[in-house]
Structures are given as structure tokens and as C-alpha cells.
Amino acid sequence: MKSSICILILFYNKLNQTIECINSFLPSGQNIYVLNNGSDTHQWKKLQTNFKDNETVILIDAGTNLGVSGGRNLLIKYSKEAWIFSIDNDIYIKDTENWVQKFEQFLTNHPEAKIVCPALFNIHDNTLSEQLTIYKTGKNIEVKTGDFAITNCFPGGGSIVHRSIFEQYGLFDEEMFVGFEDYEFAIRAMLSGKGELRAYHNKDIELVHHHRFQKSSNDKEAVRQRYNEEKLKASYDRMVSKYDIVFDHDWKWWTQKQVTDMTQNKRVYQLKSAIKKLLGK
After folding, report:
1. pLDDT value of position 259
2. Do 36 and 11 touch, CB atoms closer than 8 A?
3. How far apart are CA 140 and CA 249, in angstroms?
4. DSSP state, 61?
5. 3-class secondary structure per residue, the chain
6. Rounded distance, CA 44 to CA 51, Å?
7. What are the pLDDT tens digits along the chain (281 aa)?
């Protein structure tokens, strides 16, 4: 079996990690579509220079920051391959040469699969991420985590999805600039009457997610935009009102932690925390 897979990457600063991400997929020989989604001009030019002689790396300029949903949708529409592998630019793939063969073997064993989720190792937490399953009881939405073979939700930045899924359920909601777009997609499918998603988890393919401490001001700004509380709240409110649901999710604590871990020097942060404690704040 010969699969037609495109790798889709959103580039919003973090140049070095983006290059590392792209390089990890090059040995597979698959087309890699990279969208400049509002990056610093200097970083964008460096990325272009780095891959100008590589025909499998297709660089596209959005001209502005379209957000996560808008950016992914543009890449989905621009690409033509049957399978869509969306990747966050701070992720890279292990076993760079053989993951396609492992994917094809998985499809041989599971020919009905239309969504395949590789394992995701989170360096910051030093653990494999658990899978998510969404349950709806009345208006209440609950997310359970665990080691599941099949779930009804897939991570937008780390899954291989057949194009027919987007043809069946539509693209990501572009009114959700960043955050919760994969939850919204799963809930949309659940309520569509077409049947909920069936995302198969394949532990033989492993992705590595590295939430590095960012040193440059542009890269720190990319983190602040990715975890912007106002924009995340807008996405959350959009999803809740769209489906008239109750979704109790402690996203603010998680958001603040990501920003702190990636933009604040640990020693400075610890010193600030100690001062606040002494001042009773």
C-alpha cells in the first residue's frame, strides 16, 4: 500500500524548532506544506533560505496571522494529498525514515481507520500524553483521559486525518482563533447525526512535543499569542454558545503555566514568587 500523506505545519516564529520539525519529516519523502502565519519577517526569510532548494518543502505566506483554525484550513485547502498530517511547529517525529511504513502497516490492520493519532511524548512533563474521550450528558460535556485504543477526539496538531473527514464534517471553526478547535470539531461530529469520530491511537509512531523556554522576544510573543487568555476565552465562549453546552474546563491555570514555563526564567520566576509570598500577595 502506498499512502499519499501531506505534512501541514503552521509557522509562527520559533524558527529553530520549526526547522527541527521540518527536518524530522524530510527523510519520509512526503510533501511538507509550511504556512507563514504572521511570523517575524527576519525569521520568515531565514526559513525560506534554509529550504529554498528542497522541492518537498512548500512554503506559503498567509500575509497575516490567521490563527490556528484559519491557518490549518488554508493548508488543508491548498494541499491535495488524501491523508493530512497536521503538526505543531514545536513537535518532531521519531523514527524519521520508517514512520510511513508503520502507518501503512497500521492501515493494513485497520482499513476502516480514517483518523490515526501517533503517541505524543511531552518532554516538559517527561511522559506520554493520555488520550481524550468526550462524553455528553444532557448539556454537560465531560472529558476523560486514559489509555484508549479508540477515542472520539483527536489533537489538531498531532494527528493523521483522511481528507474525507473534513469533507464529511467541515473544516475547523475559523471564529475560534486559537484553542478548543479540536474539542469543537469532536462535539460537532457527535451532534451531527453522521456519527461521532473514531480516532485510532497508534503507539508505534511517536511524536515528541518540546515546550522549550524561549529566549528571543519574538518567540516569547509567539507563546503569549498561542496562550492568549482573551483569545482562548473567545474560543471557549464560542464553542459553549454554539452548542448550548456546559463545559467545566480549568483552562486558565493550564494557560498561565505554559506561558510561565516558556517565557520566564525559572530563577527570576522563583524570586518573584518568593517576594510576593513575603509581601503577602
Report:
1. 47
2. yes
3. 11
4. E
5. CCCCEEEEEEECCCHHHHHHHHHHHHHHCCEEEEEECCCCHHHHHHHHHHCCCCCCEEEEECCCCCHHHHHHHHHHHHCCCCEEEEECCCEEECCCCCHHHHHHHHHHHCCCCCEEEEEEEECCCCEECCEEEEEEECCEEEEEEECCCEECCCCCCEEEEEHHHHHHHCCCCCCCCCCCHHHHHHHHHHHCCCCCCCEEEEEEEEEEECCCCCCCHHHHHHHHHHCCHHHHHHHHHHHHHHHCCEECCCHHHHHHHHHHHHHCCHHHHHHHHHHHHHCCC
6. 11
7. 456 999 999 999 989 999 999 999 999 999 999 999 999 999 999 999 999 999 999 999 999 999 999 999 999 999 999 999 999 999 999 988 899 999 999 999 999 999 999 999 988 778 899 999 999 999 999 999 999 999 999 999 999 999 999 999 999 999 999 889 999 999 999 999 999 999 999 999 999 987 655 556 666 665 555 656 788 889 999 999 999 999 987 655 556 555 466 556 555 444 444 455 566 55
CB 75 within 8 A of CB 35: yes
- pTM exceeds 0.70, yes or no: yes
The candidate with the shortest Cα–Cα distance to 89, out of 1, 210, 180, is 210
Q: What angle do CA 242, 243, 249 make, to 5 degrees?
A: 95
Measured CA to CA, the distance from residue 87 to residue 132 in angstroms comes to: 18
User: Would you state the cell numbers that stand for residue 20, as one nine-digit string?
Assistant: 527541527
For residues 229 and 43, what is the distance between their CA atoms, to the nearest angstrom? 25
DSSP three-state, residue 271: helix
- Give the three-state DSSP class for 159: strand
